[in-house]
Write a structure and sequence with these properties.
The protein has seven helices and 14 strands. The protein has about 350 residues and is of the alpha+beta class. A hairpin with a 2-residue loop joins β1 and β2. About 15% of the residues have low confidence.
């Protein structure tokens, strides 16, 4: 059973069924970089002085490219991870986490505090019920508004029939349901669509969260030949969406950098070439098409053998060529002369 992140009801008019939401996405395990304390070169430690009273210089924090054969130096130069703790900004005194509450700053330095019970009392209907208020064609929902996806499951066997009926009705009508749900103390507009034997709920961004596009007017005339060449390139690259083929190249490069520094290998930064400006668009499109096909985009000439007459072609071994009427008359005349 998938992990439930929200439990409540899905309601269509007077019909409702218990459901639960499970996150449809997860964060991939990436390389985590921590904040560490690394002493600067020449920093001195006042607790360790030499015999002449002069402070002894401490070595720098351990570098990956330094020789790790000196165990003593390695142990001394290890970087220290920084610990961030809540504290009083005036006195610097550490604060117990139990003493921390939520507050709103209505003026600079002036807060009104809120308790957990006071926040709990703010729950609205969408905290427990997803009411499908309207139904719209799926194509009308602009992808710009799509935010976080969740899988919707019926909560218990009793809910399965109602759940499947609502999903089948939406699938037959070709529509998705629009409703509201409260998640993490925020009411969000949601889109619910059928998916196989279940449903998918996607939270939608509010209108004030989406910026208006500033593309301008499409009043420039476009060369139809250029569009045709670009269309041919697109057809050559046409395929199927497969997210498995995606690789996080930045994480791979970061992992290679860390491994190289751990081994003490030199690190050479890679240069990223800046694309040259396109001055002749048609010429660039043709070169692109030639690169896609592996040959220049020129009309193919018919092979030389195709231009020869049929009666001049040699028969294929093991197959008898059908004689033309002219060939038949010539052969018959030759036989009569021999006779």
């Amino acid at each position: 059973m998938p992990r439930a992140s929200w439990r409540g009801f899905l309601r269509l008019s007077l019909v409702s069924c218990p459901i639960y939401l499970s996150p449809a996405t997860t964060r991939t395990k990436s390389i985590r970089l921590h904040q560490v304390w690394q002493r600067k070169a020449g920093r001195q430690d006042s607790n360790q002085d030499d015999d002449e009273g002069e402070p002894a210089a401490r070595p720098d924090a351990r570098s990956f490219i330094e020789d790790s054969r000196d165990d003593t130096a390695t142990e001394t130069m290890t970087a220290t991870r920084v610990s961030l703790l809540p504290h009083d900004p005036r006195s610097g005194e550490e604060i117990e986490r139990e003493q921390i509450v939520k507050g709103y700053e209505y003026e600079r330095g002036q807060f009104v505090t809120l308790t957990a019970d006071e926040l709990k009392a703010l729950d609205v209907e969408s905290s427990k019920i997803i009411d499908l208020e309207s139904f719209v064609p799926r194509g009308e929902v602009d992808p710009v508004y799509l935010s976080t996806p969740y899988y919707v499951y019926p909560d218990g066997r009793i809910a399965e029939e109602t759940f499947r009926v609502i999903g089948a009705a939406m699938a037959e009508a070709g529509t998705v349901g629009i409703g509201r749900v409260t998640l993490s103390r925020r009411e969000r507009l949601v889109m619910v669509e059928p998916r196989d034997a279940g449903m998918v709920l996607i939270t939608l961004r509010a209108s004030e969260e989406v910026r208006a596009a500033a593309f301008g007017k499409a009043d420039m005339e476009i060369d139809a030949d250029m569009v045709a060449v670009a269309g041919t390139i697109i057809k050559r690259r046409r395929g199927h969406f497969d997210p498995v083929t995606f690789r996080d190249r930045y994480q791979e490069a970061l992992r290679e950098l860390i491994e190289a520094k751990m081994k003490g290998l030199p690190v050479t930064p890679k240069e990223i070439a800046t694309p040259a400006p396109v001055l002749d668009l048609m010429s660039a499109l043709k070169r692109s098409l030639a690169q896609e096909t592996g040959e220049a985009a020129k009309p193919r000439r018919r092979a030389a053998g195709d231009r020869r007459q049929t009666n001049l072609l040699l028969p294929v071994s093991g197959k008898k060529e059908k004689e033309t009427p002219t060939q038949a008359r010539t052969t018959a005349a030759g036989r009569r002369r021999k006779a």
